[in-house]
Amino acid sequence: MLHTVNKSSFERNSLKSCLNIIDDTSVILLIEDGVISAAKNTNAPMIADLAAQGRVYALQGDVEARGISSKLADNIKLVDYAGFVDLVVEHGTAVSWV
Amino acid sequence: MKISIQINEGPYQHQASDTAYQFAKAAIEKGHEIFRVFFYHDGVNNASRFTLPPQDDRNIVNQWAELGIKNADGEPELVVCIAAALRRGMLDESEASKNGIDGNNIHPAFRISGLGQLIEAGIQSDRLVVFGD
Fold first, then answer.
1. Do B3 and A88 touch (CB under 8 A)?
2. Which numeric CATH code is attached to B2-131?
3. Residue closest to B1 by CA, chosen among A30, A94, A60
4. Contact B57, B24 (CB under 8 A)
5. For residue B2, what are the β-bridge partners?
6. Does A94 touch chain B (CB under 8 A)?
7. One of B16, B81, B106, B109 is an active-site residue; which one?
8. Within 13 Å and on the Cβ side, how many CA atoms surround B34?
9. Which residue in chain A is spatially nearest to B29 when comparing CA positions?
10. Alpha carbon distance B30, A86 (integer Å)
11. Looking at the domain assignment, is residue A35 inside a domain?
12. Are residues A84 and B15, on separate chains, in Cβ contact within 8 Å?
């Protein structure tokens, strides 16, 4: 499964809720304000283990729009909208955490 | 692959419709089919043909219209939920005349229909992606 998270973990608990139920084969894509959780020195430790397994993606345009390109935590994979489409195709059911 | 999209938020206030549009555009460019886009809740406001943003801003309604998402019969597959639309004052010609109201505001690239269209999109498509807030 593909889980998209579009809220900062400072604003809502959606990333935490997602992490509580995610299985071993699913991946997370951070979009919109969700990319804030991918910035260093924020809540990135929440996703560090998953990121080390190469299972955390962030939408590049949203990362750049929020000025965190140079502050990205380790192992976060950046994708563009075409990459977003590929993730939807590859990972089956898409779950949107809002 | 057949992909459908659900949008739950209106234009300009939330990013949902922008993200969904960029996603749909990328999917079409990659050769996928957007089977249907279903506008639900405040998402129905994406279908107003009276939307007039400043000249240096994107026109989200026209952007959707220009994607030209239609079915084999040439009907638009940008579908607006009827219950969500009517309670927000979003009417097509038929609903306006049925309810004795002297105007309508649904863009011709969109059509009003029921929630069954969302269920059908979920069944007929390989993927359903939800954009909300």
1. yes
2. 3.40.1260.10
3. A94
4. no
5. B33
6. yes
7. B81
8. 27
9. A82
10. 9
11. yes
12. no
pLDDT tens-digit profile of B34-76? 999 999 999 999 999 999 999 999 999 999 999 999 999 999 9
In a domain, A1, yes or no: no
| Interatomic CA distance for residues B15 and B132, integer angstroms | 8
Instruction: Map tokens 């940008």 to a residue.
Output: B78
pLDDT in 10s for each residue of chain A, 98 residues: 999 999 999 999 999 999 999 999 999 999 999 999 999 978 778 999 999 999 999 999 999 999 999 999 999 999 999 999 999 999 999 999 99
For this structure, is B17 an active site residue?
Answer: no
Show me where the domains of chain B are located: 2-131
ipTM exceeds 0.85, yes or no: yes
Asked, for residue A46, whether it belongs to a domain, the answer is yes
pTM above 0.90, yes or no: yes
CB-based contact, A14 to chain B, within 8 Å: no
The total number of structural domains in chain A stands at: 1
Which candidate, B59, B60, B65, B57, places its Cα nearest to that of B107?
Answer: B65
The owner of tokens 């639309």 is B85
Q: What is the domain extent for residue A56?
A: 6-97
| From A80, A89, A98, residue closest to B1, measured CB to CB | A89
Q: Which residues contact B61 (CB under 8 A, 6 or more apart)?
A: B11, B46, B47, B48, B49, B51, B107
| CB nearest to A81's CB, from B16, B26, B127 | B26
